[in-house]
Structure formats: structure tokens, C-alpha cells
Design a protein that fits this description.
There is one protein chain. The protein has 405 residues and is mainly alpha-helical. It has a domain of 133 residues. 56% of the residues lie in helices and 5% in strands. The chain has 19 helices and seven strands. The strands form three sheets. It has a three-stranded antiparallel beta sheet with strand order 3-4-5. A two-stranded antiparallel ribbon has the order 1-2. It is globular and about 55 Å long.
Length: 405
């Protein structure tokens, strides 16, 4: 796949460096890390680390300047990691570390920090811990920038609101949109697996490590005690369980999709890295066995994939299995990663206009083949080709997408 992968990566990279095409997509006119121009920037920077011949640094500088213009011309911004100021500030921090950022952005970052500090306190008070849109997302930025006091406060809050049952615990989420009741979300994007990632990252950075290890162990116990019969249900974990049904034991098993955002792969990937950071070799072996079972899910019916995007599509599957292979060196994970990269390529629209690179992509339920963003667009597709061509992983993208501490 290497030669074809390089060709496809070059084609997408060229497209992402065409401002006329990029800014046809309205999402490129915002600073969001996962769903805006910042994601395009971090993708190009990561590609340039491996293949400098593919990326013009002047384009990166032009896009960075554009984000600053967007920031200067707007009156209000969402504070989140996924779609707002925390993710943008995180980008600037990474670019500074990579010596890509020119000029002095200290005043900008100081203003952003002031806003984030205020929203962080609100998130803690309201128990909004969501890693994409709430306190843990802001916490990721605080970890990277050494704001230890805020991170410690978040760990304390996680400990305070954890729902305890013997040696296990979980965190509940209020469903504002459908049931108007509390649920136990098992996923990485908005649920308990996201908490596991955050706790693992705190342990990695030695922030309240003992408290985080206790919480992480209790959370892992909760998942172990609520593992489904994979042979019967085709997935180890559900998407979520209504809390009231969990407490009175009236819930039914549920088949979850295979994706980064929800389902077994995102969960088991997170727990594989958690077992590593917790030095739990027996758990690591158990998770590898579950991942091998998960790797056998290939049909659209039992994976529920419908597009090439990272979040809930095939490029995310390819990247995660590629990283799992790098960690375990189990050859079947490499084969699975390459399979999902081929499926990603199969979603390419070969009838698109000559100057357009288009894949089957969905933003929620809306088809959007010109989406250039990282989470749901062709930047995420580019990341999959890059991961396939890189033995050391795509460090910047992996950290941005909760795939690496």
C-alpha cells in the first residue's frame, strides 16, 4: 500500500494547500481544532515532519495568520477543546514547541487563558466533564501548558462526582437532548473512556498520580464487570446505559458500532494504553485478545461505518489499528489497519471535479464531501495515509485525537 498511500497523501496534501478550495468549506472559517482550520494546520505540520517535500511552510504560515484574523474579527467563541478556544490555544502551544509559530502570541494566549479559567470553573460547578466540550478538554490544554493547579482541581472534582459501587466507579452524563435523564456513556468522545484517557494522561505527567491510579482502576473494574457476551452481542460494551436501568438492572445488552467516538475499538484502545501506564501486563494481554476479536468485525452491518472520516468512519479504524500494531507488534493488527485503509480509499469519489479531492464524508447525518476538517473531513483521511507510511506514529495528530499521552 506504500506507493499508493504516498500518492493519495500527496493528492490530499496538495488540496489542503489550495486556499481557494479549502475556504469553500464554511467550517474552514473557524479556529476549531477538530472541526475547523486549526485541524488542517496540525495535519499539514505533521505531514511535513515526515515528508517535508509535500508541504509549503508558507501555506502553514498563511493559515496560522488566517486563524488569528478569524479570532480578531469575532466577538464570541466556544471555549471547548474540540471546537473553540482551548483547542486553538493547544494548537498554538504545539506549534511553538515544533518551532513553527512565528511572532509573539503571548498576549493572545493570556487573553484566552483568562477566558478558559472562567469557563473551567463553570464546567466544574456544573459537573460538565466532557473531554470534547467540557472541563477535561480544557484540562488537556492545562496539562500541556503546565497549569497543574487547575488539573489537580479537575482530578479532585472527578473523584468527588464519581458514582462508587464497591471497588468500581463510573461517571454519569445528563442527556439534554433525548431522554432528559442521566445515562452512563461508555464511549471515548463523551463518556467514561474519555475519563480513562484523561486520568492516564495525568498519570503520565505525574499529576496526582496516586489519586488518578485509584480512579482509573475503579473505572476499569466497572468496564470489566459490565462486559457483554461478545459472541452473542457482537460487541463487548454498549453505547450507553440509562442510569436508572443500570441501578435497577433492567437494561438489555446493546451492539455498539466500531469507531473512535463510540464502541469497542475506541474503548479498548484507551484501555490498552491505560494498562500500559498502570503496569498491568495481565490486563494488557486480556485487552489484546479482545482487540483481536474486534479486528474480525469487517462488514458494514456489524461495524456500522458509512464514510471515510476519522470520528465514526474507516480512516479512524485504520489509524487506531496501526497504532495498536506499533504498540503490540501483533501482525494481524497491521493487516487490519491496511484493510481499513483500503476501505477508506474505496470511499473516494472518483467522479469528483478535476480540482477537487472528495471522499464519502458525513457531518452528523449531512453528507459533506468537501469537508476539510480533522474529525470528520479529509484531514482525518490524510492522517490515515500518513500513519500507514510512518513507523513512529503521527505524534501531533495522535495527541490531538486522544490516541497518545
Amino acid at each position: 500500500m506504500e506507493l499508493e498511500g504516498y500518492k493519495e497523501l500527496k493528492e490530499i496534501t496538495d488540496y489542503l494547500q489550495n486556499p481557494e478550495q479549502v475556504f469553500k468549506e464554511e467550517k474552514a472559517a473557524n479556529i476549531a481544532l477538530h472541526s475547523g482550520l486549526s485541524g488542517v494546520i496540525i495535519t499539514l505540520v505533521n505531514i511535513r515532519k515526515k515528508f517535508p517535500e509535500l508541504v509549503d511552510p508558507d501555506i502553514i504560515r498563511q493559515y496560522i495568520a488566517k486563524t488569528y484574523d478569524i479570532l480578531s474579527e469575532s466577538e464570541a467563541f466556544y471555549p471547548s477543546f474540540c471546537g473553540g478556544l482551548a483547542g486553538y490555544a493547544y494548537l498554538l502551544h504545539l506549534l511553538k514547541e515544533e518551532q513553527v509559530l512565528e511572532g509573539d502570541y503571548s498576549e493572545v494566549l493570556a487573553e484566552i487563558d483568562e477566558i478558559l479559567d472562567e469557563h473551567f470553573e463553570i464546567n466544574l460547578e456544573e459537573e460538565d466533564i466532557d473531554i470534547l466540550h467540557g472541563a477535561m478538554g480544557l484540562g488537556l490544554y492545562f496539562i500541556e501548558t503546565g497549569k497543574k493547579q487547575q488539573v489537580e482541581a479537575l482530578v479532585d472534582r472527578l473523584a468527588g462526582i464519581a458514582q462508587r459501587e464497591g471497588d468500581q466507579c463510573y461517571w454519569k452524563t445528563f442527556d439534554h437532548y433525548k431522554t432528559r435523564k442521566y445515562k452512563i456513556d461508555f464511549g471515548l468522545a463523551h463518556g467514561n473512556a474519555g475519563v480513562q484517557y484523561f486520568l492516564g494522561k495525568c498519570i503520565y505527567h505525574n499529576i496526582k498520580a496516586d489519586a488518578c491510579k485509584e480512579l482509573l482502576q475503579a473505572s476499569l473494574n466497572f468496564y470489566k464487570n459490565n462486559t457483554q457476551n461478545h459472541n452473542a452481542i457482537q460487541s463487548y460494551f454498549p453505547v450507553h446505559i440509562p442510569e436508572e436501568n443500570y441501578l435497577d438492572k433492567t437494561y438489555a445488552p446493546e451492539t455498539s458500532r466500531m469507531a473512535w467516538c463510540y464502541g469497542d475499538l475506541g474503548i479498548l484502545y484507551t484501555q490498552l494504553f491505560a494498562a500500559d501506564i498502570m503496569d498491568m501486563p495481565d490486563l494488557k494481554l486480556e485487552i489484546i485478545g479482545q482487540l483481536k476479536q474486534t479486528a474480525q468485525r469487517r462488514t458494514k452491518e456489524n461495524t456500522m461505518h458509512n464514510d471515510a472520516g476519522f470520528c465514526h468512519g474507516t480512516s479512524g479504524l485504520s489509524i487506531m489499528f496501526q497504532n495498536i500494531y506499533q504498540l503490540t507488534k501483533e501482525p494481524e493488527f497491521l493487516e487490519t489497519a491496511q484493510y481499513w485503509l483500503q476501505q477508506t480509499h474505496a470511499y473516494k469519489n472518483s467522479t469528483a471535479a478535476y480540482d477537487v479531492v472528495a471522499y464519502r464524508l458525513f457531518e452528523g447525518s449531512r453528507k459533506n464531501e468537501i469537508d476539510v476538517t480533522l474529525l470528520e473531513g479529509i484531514s482525518g483521511v490524510a492522517a490515515a495515509y500518513l500513519a500507514n507510511l510512518t513507523t513512529g506514529g503521527t505524534t501531533l495528530l495522535d495527541k490531538t485525537l486522544f490516541l497518545r499521552y
